[in-house]
Amino acid sequence: RILDDVIPPSDIGVTFDDIGALENVKDTLNELVMLPLQRPELFCKSQLTKPWKGILLFGPPGTGKTMLAKAVATKAGANFINISMSSITSKLFGEGEKYVKAVFSLASKIAPCVVFVDKVDSLLGRRENSGEHEAARKIKNEFMVNWDGLRTKDSERVMILAATNRPFDLDEAVIRRLPRRLMVNLPDAPNRAKILKVILAKEDLAQDVDLDSVASMTNGYSGSDLKNLCVTAAYRPIREIVEKEKKELAAASADGRSPPTPYSSADIR
Ligand code: ATP
Protein backbone atom coordinates (compact mmCIF):
# COMPACT_ATOMS: atom_id res chain seq x y z
CA ARG A 1 0.00 0.00 0.00
CA ILE A 2 2.79 2.43 0.87
CA LEU A 3 4.57 1.68 -2.38
CA ASP A 4 1.56 3.21 -4.16
CA ASP A 5 2.37 6.49 -2.47
CA VAL A 6 5.91 6.65 -3.84
CA ILE A 7 6.35 8.78 -6.93
CA PRO A 8 9.55 7.99 -8.83
CA PRO A 9 11.44 11.06 -10.04
CA SER A 10 10.54 10.43 -13.67
CA ASP A 11 6.82 10.54 -12.80
CA ILE A 12 6.76 13.56 -10.52
CA GLY A 13 6.03 15.79 -13.49
CA VAL A 14 7.18 19.13 -12.05
CA THR A 15 10.50 20.83 -12.76
CA PHE A 16 11.88 24.20 -11.68
CA ASP A 17 11.09 25.47 -15.18
CA ASP A 18 7.38 24.98 -14.46
CA ILE A 19 7.61 27.41 -11.55
CA GLY A 20 7.59 31.12 -12.29
CA ALA A 21 9.49 33.57 -10.06
CA LEU A 22 10.65 32.33 -6.59
CA GLU A 23 14.28 32.31 -7.79
CA ASN A 24 15.74 32.72 -4.31
CA VAL A 25 13.76 29.81 -2.90
CA LYS A 26 14.75 27.63 -5.86
CA ASP A 27 18.43 28.48 -5.35
CA THR A 28 18.24 27.78 -1.63
CA LEU A 29 16.48 24.45 -2.20
CA ASN A 30 19.15 23.49 -4.70
CA GLU A 31 21.80 24.03 -2.08
CA LEU A 32 19.94 22.62 0.93
CA VAL A 33 18.21 19.65 -0.69
CA MET A 34 19.41 18.82 -4.17
CA LEU A 35 23.15 18.73 -3.52
CA PRO A 36 22.99 16.86 -0.18
CA LEU A 37 20.67 14.25 -1.74
CA GLN A 38 22.90 13.76 -4.73
CA ARG A 39 26.30 14.15 -3.13
CA PRO A 40 26.01 13.58 0.62
CA GLU A 41 29.74 12.87 0.88
CA LEU A 42 30.49 16.57 0.28
CA PHE A 43 28.55 17.55 3.38
CA CYS A 44 29.68 14.92 5.86
CA LYS A 45 33.24 16.14 6.41
CA SER A 46 32.32 18.90 8.80
CA GLN A 47 29.77 19.01 11.63
CA LEU A 48 28.82 22.42 10.32
CA THR A 49 27.66 21.17 6.94
CA LYS A 50 25.76 18.07 8.05
CA PRO A 51 22.66 18.15 5.86
CA TRP A 52 19.49 19.56 7.38
CA LYS A 53 16.97 16.83 7.96
CA GLY A 54 14.04 19.17 7.85
CA ILE A 55 13.20 22.22 5.79
CA LEU A 56 10.04 24.24 6.20
CA LEU A 57 8.31 26.02 3.34
CA PHE A 58 5.76 28.46 4.69
CA GLY A 59 3.48 31.03 3.14
CA PRO A 60 -0.05 31.71 1.93
CA PRO A 61 -2.06 29.04 0.11
CA GLY A 62 -1.39 28.43 -3.57
CA THR A 63 2.04 30.05 -3.69
CA GLY A 64 3.88 27.02 -5.06
CA LYS A 65 5.16 25.18 -1.97
CA THR A 66 4.12 21.74 -3.20
CA MET A 67 5.49 22.47 -6.67
CA LEU A 68 8.84 23.50 -5.19
CA ALA A 69 9.12 20.29 -3.16
CA LYS A 70 8.29 18.21 -6.22
CA ALA A 71 10.65 20.14 -8.48
CA VAL A 72 13.63 19.76 -6.15
CA ALA A 73 12.95 16.02 -5.89
CA THR A 74 12.83 15.81 -9.69
CA LYS A 75 16.10 17.67 -9.97
CA ALA A 76 17.77 15.50 -7.35
CA GLY A 77 16.51 12.34 -9.06
CA ALA A 78 14.81 11.48 -5.76
CA ASN A 79 11.67 9.50 -5.05
CA PHE A 80 8.83 11.59 -3.65
CA ILE A 81 6.41 10.60 -0.90
CA ASN A 82 3.64 13.03 -0.03
CA ILE A 83 2.06 12.58 3.38
CA SER A 84 -0.47 14.64 5.28
CA MET A 85 -2.70 14.07 8.27
CA SER A 86 -5.76 13.89 6.04
CA SER A 87 -4.21 11.24 3.78
CA ILE A 88 -3.08 9.19 6.79
CA THR A 89 -6.39 9.31 8.61
CA SER A 90 -8.59 8.85 5.54
CA LYS A 91 -6.73 5.78 4.31
CA LEU A 92 -5.64 4.13 7.49
CA PHE A 93 -8.09 4.46 10.25
CA GLY A 94 -6.30 3.38 13.42
CA GLU A 95 -3.09 2.44 11.63
CA GLY A 96 -1.50 5.83 11.26
CA GLU A 97 1.49 5.06 13.46
CA LYS A 98 2.37 1.94 11.52
CA TYR A 99 2.08 3.87 8.28
CA VAL A 100 4.41 6.62 9.51
CA LYS A 101 7.00 4.07 10.63
CA ALA A 102 6.74 2.27 7.31
CA VAL A 103 7.13 5.50 5.34
CA PHE A 104 10.39 6.29 7.09
CA SER A 105 11.73 2.78 6.70
CA LEU A 106 10.78 2.69 3.02
CA ALA A 107 12.25 6.17 2.41
CA SER A 108 15.68 4.95 3.58
CA LYS A 109 15.44 1.89 1.35
CA ILE A 110 14.54 3.87 -1.76
CA ALA A 111 16.82 6.84 -1.04
CA PRO A 112 17.37 9.41 -2.37
CA CYS A 113 13.92 10.32 -1.19
CA VAL A 114 12.02 13.47 -0.33
CA VAL A 115 9.24 13.00 2.21
CA PHE A 116 6.89 15.93 1.77
CA VAL A 117 4.64 16.71 4.73
CA ASP A 118 1.83 18.87 3.44
CA LYS A 119 -0.10 20.95 5.99
CA VAL A 120 2.47 19.99 8.62
CA ASP A 121 0.52 22.02 11.20
CA SER A 122 -2.27 19.45 11.16
CA LEU A 123 0.12 16.49 11.48
CA LEU A 124 2.56 18.05 13.91
CA GLY A 125 0.68 21.04 15.31
CA ARG A 126 0.59 22.28 18.86
CA ARG A 127 -1.24 20.02 21.22
CA GLU A 128 -3.22 22.69 22.98
CA ASN A 129 -4.69 23.77 19.64
CA SER A 130 -6.74 20.75 18.94
CA GLY A 131 -7.59 19.11 22.22
CA GLU A 132 -5.40 16.53 20.56
CA HIS A 133 -6.91 13.20 19.88
CA GLU A 134 -5.05 10.17 21.23
CA ALA A 135 -4.56 8.70 17.74
CA ALA A 136 -3.17 11.99 16.40
CA ARG A 137 -0.81 12.24 19.36
CA LYS A 138 0.52 8.77 18.68
CA ILE A 139 1.04 9.51 14.99
CA LYS A 140 2.90 12.66 15.88
CA ASN A 141 5.13 10.89 18.41
CA GLU A 142 5.92 8.17 15.90
CA PHE A 143 6.81 10.79 13.33
CA MET A 144 9.14 12.63 15.70
CA VAL A 145 10.92 9.45 16.82
CA ASN A 146 11.52 8.35 13.24
CA TRP A 147 12.54 11.81 12.20
CA ASP A 148 15.22 11.83 14.90
CA GLY A 149 16.35 8.46 13.60
CA LEU A 150 17.30 9.93 10.22
CA ARG A 151 20.90 10.23 11.30
CA THR A 152 22.13 6.85 10.19
CA LYS A 153 24.13 6.10 7.09
CA ASP A 154 21.09 4.41 5.51
CA SER A 155 18.94 7.47 5.86
CA GLU A 156 21.64 9.87 4.75
CA ARG A 157 19.78 10.64 1.54
CA VAL A 158 16.31 11.12 3.03
CA MET A 159 15.04 14.66 3.46
CA ILE A 160 11.87 15.93 5.13
CA LEU A 161 10.28 18.92 3.45
CA ALA A 162 7.33 20.35 5.33
CA ALA A 163 4.84 22.97 4.19
CA THR A 164 2.34 25.09 6.04
CA ASN A 165 0.18 28.18 5.80
CA ARG A 166 0.14 28.37 9.60
CA PRO A 167 3.75 28.35 10.86
CA PHE A 168 2.70 29.77 14.23
CA ASP A 169 0.64 26.66 14.95
CA LEU A 170 3.73 24.44 14.98
CA ASP A 171 5.04 23.45 18.35
CA GLU A 172 8.54 24.20 19.59
CA ALA A 173 9.78 20.64 19.18
CA VAL A 174 8.78 20.65 15.51
CA ILE A 175 10.17 24.11 14.81
CA ARG A 176 13.49 22.98 16.31
CA ARG A 177 13.63 20.10 13.83
CA LEU A 178 13.01 22.52 10.96
CA PRO A 179 15.92 24.90 11.38
CA ARG A 180 15.78 26.13 7.79
CA ARG A 181 12.55 27.95 7.05
CA LEU A 182 11.87 29.38 3.62
CA MET A 183 9.12 31.88 3.11
CA VAL A 184 7.13 31.42 -0.10
CA ASN A 185 5.25 34.66 -0.36
CA LEU A 186 2.58 36.09 -2.64
CA PRO A 187 4.22 37.42 -5.81
CA ASP A 188 4.55 41.14 -6.57
CA ALA A 189 3.65 42.49 -10.04
CA PRO A 190 6.95 41.65 -11.83
CA ASN A 191 6.85 38.14 -10.34
CA ARG A 192 3.18 37.72 -11.29
CA ALA A 193 4.22 38.54 -14.86
CA LYS A 194 6.91 35.84 -14.67
CA ILE A 195 4.40 33.29 -13.33
CA LEU A 196 1.89 34.18 -16.06
CA LYS A 197 4.60 33.68 -18.69
CA VAL A 198 5.35 30.21 -17.34
CA ILE A 199 1.68 29.22 -17.10
CA LEU A 200 1.03 30.44 -20.64
CA ALA A 201 4.33 29.30 -22.16
CA LYS A 202 2.74 26.69 -24.39
CA GLU A 203 -0.41 28.65 -25.24
CA ASP A 204 -1.23 30.36 -28.47
CA LEU A 205 -1.83 33.91 -27.25
CA ALA A 206 -3.37 36.76 -29.22
CA GLN A 207 -0.85 39.40 -30.35
CA ASP A 208 -2.28 42.08 -28.12
CA VAL A 209 -2.14 40.17 -24.83
CA ASP A 210 -0.10 42.25 -22.40
CA LEU A 211 0.97 40.07 -19.47
CA ASP A 212 2.57 42.99 -17.61
CA SER A 213 -0.74 44.76 -17.56
CA VAL A 214 -2.55 41.60 -16.36
CA ALA A 215 0.12 41.33 -13.67
CA SER A 216 -0.46 44.91 -12.57
CA MET A 217 -4.22 44.27 -12.24
CA THR A 218 -3.91 41.16 -10.08
CA ASN A 219 -2.58 42.46 -6.80
CA GLY A 220 -2.93 39.83 -4.04
CA TYR A 221 -3.23 36.90 -6.48
CA SER A 222 -1.24 33.76 -5.71
CA GLY A 223 0.27 31.54 -8.42
CA SER A 224 -2.74 29.30 -8.02
CA ASP A 225 -5.12 32.27 -8.49
CA LEU A 226 -3.22 33.24 -11.65
CA LYS A 227 -3.54 29.69 -12.96
CA ASN A 228 -7.30 29.78 -12.31
CA LEU A 229 -7.56 33.14 -14.05
CA CYS A 230 -5.82 31.72 -17.13
CA VAL A 231 -8.03 28.63 -17.12
CA THR A 232 -11.15 30.80 -16.94
CA ALA A 233 -9.85 32.96 -19.78
CA ALA A 234 -9.09 29.88 -21.88
CA TYR A 235 -12.67 28.66 -21.46
CA ARG A 236 -14.16 31.89 -22.79
CA PRO A 237 -13.54 31.36 -26.54
CA ILE A 238 -14.92 27.83 -26.22
CA ARG A 239 -18.08 29.18 -24.62
CA GLU A 240 -18.31 31.87 -27.34
CA ILE A 241 -17.96 29.39 -30.15
CA VAL A 242 -20.60 27.07 -28.70
CA GLU A 243 -23.00 30.04 -28.36
CA LYS A 244 -22.28 31.06 -31.95
CA GLU A 245 -22.93 27.50 -33.16
CA LYS A 246 -26.26 27.41 -31.31
CA LYS A 247 -27.35 30.67 -32.97
CA GLU A 248 -26.29 29.53 -36.44
CA LEU A 249 -28.06 26.21 -35.97
CA ALA A 250 -31.26 27.95 -34.86
CA ALA A 251 -31.07 30.35 -37.85
CA ALA A 252 -30.46 27.46 -40.29
CA SER A 253 -33.38 25.47 -38.97
CA ALA A 254 -35.63 28.56 -39.06
CA ASP A 255 -34.69 29.09 -42.75
CA GLY A 256 -35.07 25.37 -43.56
CA ARG A 257 -31.34 25.10 -44.43
CA SER A 258 -29.22 22.08 -43.56
CA PRO A 259 -27.28 22.46 -40.24
CA PRO A 260 -23.89 24.21 -40.52
CA THR A 261 -20.69 22.21 -39.96
CA PRO A 262 -19.61 22.43 -36.31
CA TYR A 263 -16.52 24.54 -35.59
CA SER A 264 -13.25 22.82 -34.77
CA SER A 265 -10.41 23.69 -32.38
CA ALA A 266 -8.76 25.62 -35.25
CA ASP A 267 -11.62 28.14 -35.02
CA ILE A 268 -11.00 28.90 -31.35
CA ARG A 269 -9.32 32.29 -31.03
P1 ATP B 1 -1.28 25.12 -0.40
O1 ATP B 1 -0.58 25.92 0.66
O2 ATP B 1 -2.71 25.51 -0.55
O3 ATP B 1 -1.07 23.63 -0.28
P2 ATP B 1 0.87 25.45 -2.32
O4 ATP B 1 1.66 26.63 -1.85
O5 ATP B 1 1.45 24.10 -2.02
O6 ATP B 1 -0.64 25.56 -1.81
P3 ATP B 1 0.89 24.57 -5.03
O7 ATP B 1 0.00 23.39 -4.75
O8 ATP B 1 2.33 24.31 -5.22
O9 ATP B 1 0.67 25.64 -3.88
O10 ATP B 1 0.34 25.37 -6.29
C1 ATP B 1 -1.00 25.23 -6.73
C2 ATP B 1 -1.05 25.49 -8.21
O11 ATP B 1 -0.84 26.88 -8.46
C3 ATP B 1 0.00 24.76 -9.00
O12 ATP B 1 -0.42 23.49 -9.41
C4 ATP B 1 0.24 25.69 -10.17
O13 ATP B 1 -0.73 25.46 -11.18
C5 ATP B 1 -0.03 27.08 -9.60
N1 ATP B 1 1.18 27.80 -9.16
C6 ATP B 1 1.43 28.25 -7.91
N2 ATP B 1 2.59 28.92 -7.85
C7 ATP B 1 3.10 28.90 -9.10
C8 ATP B 1 4.29 29.42 -9.69
N3 ATP B 1 5.20 30.12 -8.98
N4 ATP B 1 4.50 29.21 -11.03
C9 ATP B 1 3.60 28.51 -11.76
N5 ATP B 1 2.45 28.00 -11.26
C10 ATP B 1 2.19 28.19 -9.95
TrEMBL record:
Protein location: Mitochondrion outer membrane
Domain AAA+ ATPase: 51-188
Full protein name: AAA+ ATPase domain-containing protein
Portion of the full sequence shown: 625 to 893 of 959
